[in-house]
Amino acid sequence: MRGAPDPHAGRAAVHAASSGRLGAAHPRQEGPTDLRLVPPALAVWATAAVMLDATAAWVTGTVVVCLLAAGALLLVRRRAADGGGSCAGQGKRDYGGGGGWGRNSGGGNQGGTPAGDPGTTGAPTGGNQDRGPLPEQSAPVPVPVGRASRTGGGPVRAAWPRVSVAAVLLCVAAAAVSAGLHGADVRSGPVPELARQYATVTAEVEVGSDPRLSRPRISGDHVAPASVLIQGEVRRVEEAGGTAVVTRAPVLVIVDAGPHGAGGTGPPRSPWLELLPSTRVRVVARLAPAAVEGDRVAAVLRVRGKTAPEVVGGPSGVQRFAGRLRAGLREATDGLSADAKALLPGLVVGDTSRITPELDEAFKETDLAHTLAVSGSNLTIILALLIGAPGTAQLVERRGLAPRLGIPLRTTALLGGALTLAFVIVCRPDPSVLRAAACGAVVLLALATGRRRSLIPALATAVLLLVLYDPWLARSYGFLLSVLATGALLTLAPRWSEALRRRGVPPRLAEGLAAAAAAQALCAPVVAVLSARVSLVAVPCNLLAEIAVAPATVLGFAALATAPVLMPVAKVLAWCASWPTGWIAGIARTGAALPGGGVDWPGTWSGAGLLALVTVTVLLIGRRLLRHPWWCAACGVLLVLVVVQPPPLTRVITGWPPPGWRFAMCDVGQGDATVLAAGDGSGVVVDAGPDPTLVDHCLRTLGITRIPLIVLTHFHADHVAGLPGVLRGRSVGAIETTGFEEPADQARFVRKEAAARHIPLTHAVAGEQRRTGSLSWQVLWPPPRPAPDPDGPNDASVALLARSGGLRLLLLGDLEPPSQQALLRSPEGALLGGVDVLKVAHHGSAYQDPELMRRVAPRIALISCGEHNMYGHPAPSTVAALQAEGAVVLRTDRDGALAVAGDGRELGVARD
User: Do 309 and 211 contact (CB within 8 A), yes or no?
Assistant: First the structure.
């Protein structure tokens, strides 16, 4: 009996036949895609997600059942194999007589290797000559006997499904053990019990990730103070009685960020932000249970009144080295524009500490947020310099610098491994970075195997091993999106790219468009769950941004590497990288600014399923439309109109804003933002609301591109926090505010925004009169100095009386009864009678002066308030008092945005 042939002989012959030193191969020479690792990977993923919360009894039961079932299947397979030798041998002999590459439809030995020699198959002859030789195939290719025998007789063929099922069961058992142990680590020990008691403890915490600042959050009329968030592990905890316990429990540490930096206007610069991973600190903190059950946090540690951390153990040498590299990159980017300075460290190493909330929101709305986090694409770009782009492996397995420099294949793989290790060190070995490294390592595995189709089993292997190593990844949305995006690039993108090329699309454009569309198709349902929104501009934005991602990343990594030794060179490289980085930021801002750039979507898994169904339907229809260029062009034009929403066309279709509108109240939630029409595309904006996105959307639907004046009635966050949205893409003449600059942090915020755009800032005083076009207005409050200080920011609100087209509009800001009464007694109080429209003070709160409402007696009263707000605005008593004076009361929480049109005789209100 002959010995088993070399299993690599077939691949060697293929490469030998290619007659190219770079190892060319055609995909048709590969076998069908190997999906055997996909079921175990999915089984491990699902098991880990479920078993993290399971009890010990459930975990034990699952493991025992899986092991018994797997053992039974393997035992049955062994007995079948022992009794099926003759059948297996016949299977080999039948395979050998099958006619080589042909289909063997006629049986016998037509044009193939003789039946007595099962070792190889020849080129197709005889009945199979119609198929012809495969591309790049000029010599017989040996086929291993072992693989042929697996497809032979009945008993052996039936045994393999049993082995596959047994393998899945064994993987489920392993995942259950790993998840059970990791879940128990979070639930066991003294920390969870102390958290349930809200105990104050002294703990020693090892920092596990880079500290980060919480995003600003509007809470009522103020901005919640920023906090430093640190993921770490409690290694030692001391209770109030002095008992010390050594433990290991994952926690989230929350520390007050402290005062702002950069002259009081920059982000907080807390010494806690300088901590490196693996540093150990001692804290006195109050424990609290995790906000979300089933999360990878045993407790929350709230540290108060601690200005600096007490370090008891320094970081490791590796983390110090990585910290110096990251700090060097930040220093190299210090002189760049604001967007480039913030974005480049995020693109390179995932350092988002400088990303502003506005820029972050723009990237989320355009589905470009993945560029701000460490992902497999970062590593793939670097590896592409060495071994070529992974997508080109379909036709040529090796490109890049390595083959052109004559570096052997194995040495190239080792260099790629070293790059991957350096990537993990610099970007921190936390789960997200490990996930990125595993997904990027798919390229190395493809290189090592020499087969494009090995990418799928490589991805499955990465998922399986990573989830077994860290079962919490099974519940990570970031991990899910990374796997989906990678799977889309490996499965859908090549087929779609080929289809586009067949229809005349240039190859590079086809490849980029297919990659962006495939990733969006698979990831959009998950993104919808996270953001309750579907982006209509994600594909073009990602396609345009992809042009700049590679040069920005390569130049950024070069700056990172040279910063510790040659800072001037690093600054030059960072400056070069700022151009593509600025392009990416511009794409994000432009896409986010489009009025129809996204649509709201149910943020549930049912909504995700519906979006997946819609996506499949669109793809099926689109496949048919590709045969009709005119229909494709019509659909493209229609999509552009939906996204751009030209104001003239929008006004005709929706009726918003109404023709001749004079005054509009935006729906910005619990806050104020109103617009006085001042001509075609021009308007005076009074207050900016709490959310930049909402007020920007409102101004775009109104067609406002020029703002001669912004009036901020007072500095509460629900009136000024949306200022960046008002300024976005519009020319602004000046900003006018009250002279009472409290709260101080929001006053600093307004000054910073005005200074950044060189907009003059002035104070409004009673008696001031202005005019622009047909709009005129007069300031009624606050009185000029010397006037007694108001009781608070609300009583210092700017009040305006505006006249437009015969209408009189009164805007009272957030004035409360003391200032309302004083306004009635002031000289300006004589102007309050006969008002057509009243913007009710303080969101319609109960604190209103009855005499003021009787004096004003408006025809229409508008109230700006948020749906289900915690303050109960508007108060029923206020609404009843206004209606008793004959006013029609409208409110944004129920009626949406409101626009008033008409003149002194006729008056109408339109709703958006």
Answer: no
